[in-house]
Amino acid sequence: MKRIVFASMLVLSLVGCASQPETSSSLIDRPELKVDPEVVYTMGVTELFQERLAQPDGESLLQVQFAVEARSDAELAWKVTWFDASGMMVKGVGESYRKASLLTGQTRYFKATAPHSRVVSYQLHLREPQ
Amino acid sequence: MLIRAVAISVGLTVIAGCAAPTRYIDPAADDGPVAMTMDYRDFEKAATDAVEDMLASGAVNNPNGGRYIMVVSRITNDTMQRIDTDQLTKKIRVALLRSGKVVTTTAVGLNGAEDEMSMRARELRDSEEFDQSGVQRKGTLQAPDLSLSGKILQRNHRVGKEQQVEYYIQLSLTDLASGLAFWEGETPIIKRGSDSSVSW
C-alpha cells in the first residue's frame, strides 16, 4: 500500500513539474524597426509607413516606406525581411543590404515591396556600412 | 650555401604568411571592397529594383487570373565586360516565380529553346519503343504572354584624378499580344574609383 501511495505521489510530482511547451506565439516579440546604435548618432528615422497595395487579381502586397533624416553626411545600409502570417520568413530577390548616401540635413525616402501577397509583417534593419 | 637556402625558405614562408586566406563571403553581410566592374551586388540591386517595381505596378497581374507566361528575350550586353546576362535574368525569373504571378517558359527562345528537351521529348511520339501514354500530346506547350528584354550599358568618364564608370541596366516587359511595354525600368549603378582601376 505504501509503495502504491509513494509511486502515485512520485508520478503526480513529476506531472506537476512538467511545464507546458511554449507556443511560438509567446516567443514572438519582433520589432518592426531595428536600428544599429551607430546609425542613431548620424541620422534618425522620421517616418515609417506600411500599406497594402491592391492588385487587379484581388490580392494585395505589403509595401513599406520610411524616411531618414541625416544630421551629418553619412552612409546607410538597409534591408527589409518579410514574414508570413505564421511568422516564417518569405524570401525576396536577394538578402544583401541596400546602400544609400545621405547628405547633412537631407531627408530621403525609401520604399520596399513584399515579394508575395502572403507577407503580412516585416522587419526593417538599418545599419552603418563598414 | 646553407645561409642562402635558409634565407630563401624564410622569404617564402613570410610571403606565404602574408597572402590573404581564401574565405567564404556571406552575401547577406558583405561589406567587402567594391570593384569597378559589375559584381553580384550590382545584379542583385538591379533585380531587386526591377522585381519590386514590377510587382508594385501590377504589371505582372494577369487580369484573366492565373499566372502570366514569360519568355526571356535578348538582354544586350553593351559593356566592356564579358557578362552572362543570366546573372540578372535568373534572379528576376526566380523572384517572379516565387511571387506566384509569372512563370517562365524554357521551350521558346530567340536562339532556340532554353531547354530543348521539351521538343526532343515529343520526338518520342509514335515510337514503338515508348509507352505512348506517357509521351507528351500535341498542343500542350504554352505560348508566352510576356517578353523580358533589355540592355546593360557602360559609360566611362574621367573625373579629376578618378575614373567614373556608369552602368545602366534597362529592362522592358512587353505584352506579346499587343506589342506594348507593360513595364519598363532602369537601374543606374555609378562607381567612382582610382583611375588605374580596370573596368573591363
State the shape of chain A: elongated
SS content category of chain B? alpha/beta
CATH fold-level label of chain A: Immunoglobulin-like
Indicate the radius of gyration of chain B in whole angstroms.
Answer: 24 Å
CATH class category label of chain B: Alpha Beta
Our Rg estimate of chain A from Cα atoms comes to 23 Å
Characteristics of this structure?
heterodimer; A: five-stranded mixed beta sheet; three-stranded antiparallel beta sheet; elongated; B: 200 residues; alpha/beta; Rossmann fold; 5 strands; 26% helix; 28% strand
Summarize the structure.
Chain A has 130 residues and is an alpha+beta fold. Chain A is built from three helices and eight strands. Chain B has 200 residues and is α/β, with parallel strands linked by helices.
Write the layout of secondary structure elements.
The complex is a heterodimer of chains A (130) and B (200).
Chain A: H1 2-17, H2 24-27, E1 33-35, H3 37-40, E2 43-54, E3 60-70, E4 74-84, E5 89-90, E6 98-102, E7 107-113, E8 119-127
Parallel strand pairs in A: 1-8
Antiparallel strand pairs in A: 2-3, 3-7, 4-5, 4-6, 4-8
Chain B: H1 2-18, H2 40-57, E1 68-78, H3 86-99, E2 102-104, H4 117-120, E3 146-159, E4 162-175, E5 180-194
Parallel strand pairs in B: 1-2, 1-3
Antiparallel strand pairs in B: 3-4, 4-5
How would you describe the overall organization of this protein?
The complex is a heterodimer of chains A (130) and B (200). By secondary structure, chain A is of the alpha+beta class. Chain A has 3 helices and 8 strands. Chain A has helices at 2-17, 24-27, 37-40, and strands spanning 33-35, 43-54, 60-70, 74-84, 89-90, 98-102, 107-113, 119-127. In chain A, the strands form 2 sheets. In chain A, strands 1, 4, 5, 6 and 8 form a 5-stranded mixed β-sheet that branches. A 3-stranded antiparallel β-sheet of chain A has the order 2-3-7, with no helix packed on it. The model of chain A has no long low-confidence stretch (mean pLDDT 86). Chain B has 200 residues and is of the alpha/beta class. Chain B has one domain (37-125, 137-192): Rossmann fold. In chain B, 26% of the residues lie in helices and 28% in strands. The two termini of chain B are 46 Å apart. The model of chain B has no long low-confidence stretch (mean pLDDT 91).
